[in-house]
Amino acid sequence: MKDINASFDDILRQRHSARAFLPQAVPEALITELLEMSARAPSGSNIQPWRVYVLQGPAKLRIEQKVCALHDELYINPQKIEDFKTEWTYYPRTWVSPFIERRRENGWGLYSLLGIEKGQKEKMHQQHRKNFQFFGAPVGLFFTVHRSLEVGSMLDYGMFLQSLMLAAKSRGLDTCAQAAWNTFSEVIMSEIGASEDEKFICGMSLGWADPAQVVNAFDTPRVAAKEFTRWLEE
Ligand SMILES: Cc1cc2nc3c(=O)[nH]c(=O)nc-3n(C[C@H](O)[C@H](O)[C@H](O)COP(=O)(O)O)c2cc1C
Q1: 110, part of any domain
Q2: What is the pTM of this model?
């Protein structure tokens, strides 16, 4: 019994967010295979709310350059954030415990691994900027959803995204889901030619992680099941 799910469990454990990739291109047939596998994800009434944009080559570079420039502008002039309209917020406006502590632990854990200390704003900016180059990955993915759909489709979407990340890992590929792009969703939607009916969900980097980069050694803890589970039996 014990080993029945060993390989699947291995994939679950081996999937980490990669933040430095090798430039090696991913064959289009392989990307299609990953998307076919992710589409096996369940969705309420089987509505399959996902829509995917695959970016490579000059199309990817164009968006990266545009968004990096905007990100740099925001660094110099933070009030400009008002110009960027996002349709939904991924994170809460007000953070409460225990989430704020976990978020801080995660952020500082990553920065300290990279030798970035509190107050080193330029270094933090440069690290965050790597999001907008898909961390050097050869493939960038953007996900959208039809705007008529409700929050239930976000549940479906999460399953699709995790299926994609696990299908990638099971083939030796790596990913990083990226909400960082959401700030610039208006610009992205226009660049990728998305219709007015679509809403931006998030981005994702896809490729082979560079094992020589220390950032990819970042390991994230999880709260034990007993801490988030309540058993009701009697
Ligand atoms: C929807 C979603 C959005 C995320 N956005 C970003 C992001 O913009 N940039 C980033 O570096 N990591 C991002 N992450 C990665 C998380 O920080 C990461 O999943 C978490 O710290 C757990 O680490 P692990 O993925 O290595 O297990 C995102 C993850 C998810 C699921």
Answers
A1: no
A2: 0.96
